[in-house]
Write a structure and sequence with these properties.
The protein is an all-beta fold. It has no helices and 11 strands. A hairpin with a 6-residue loop joins strand 4 and strand 5.
């Protein structure tokens, strides 16, 4: 059974940092691109970043560029999202997603599977 378990969320002040982790199991982690998405209260799900299966290609939403970094450790089956210079508008539930392909790091595609999420709250 495929599992994606996010962790690392919490409360942080504006300008602070967090590192989110997503532990994966039940599939060949190194064969698939991975993504982070988020959903703020009352808003639609928003793609944040994606990384190819080998970690060579990463892409970001405009809101994440220059502040967030996605990475992965295929030996540990974990994908990370480093959040820096955080803003109140980064407050959301953050989810990791498994792609259906190895190199598909685009914002939207069918066939992705999502974990249960980890809450991030940024306050003044």
């Amino acid at each position: 059974e495929m599992q994606l378990v996010e962790s690392g969320g919490g409360w942080v002040e504006v300008g602070g940092s967090l590192r989110l982790s997503c532990a994966s199991s039940g599939f060949i982690f190194s064969s698939y691109a991975m993504h982070w998405v988020r959903q703020a209260p009352g808003k639609e799900l928003e793609w944040v970043a994606g990384i190819s299966n080998g970690g060579n290609t990463a892409k970001y939403a405009d809101a994440a560029k220059d502040r967030f970094t996605i990475s992965r450790d295929n030996a540990k089956n974990v994908v990370y999202l480093q959040l820096n210079s955080m803003k109140t508008e980064d407050t959301a539930m953050y989810y990791c997603e498994k792609d259906s392909k190895a190199y598909q790091v685009v914002a939207h595609a069918r066939g992705r599977e999502r974990g249960q999420g980890t809450q991030v709250t940024v306050s003044l």
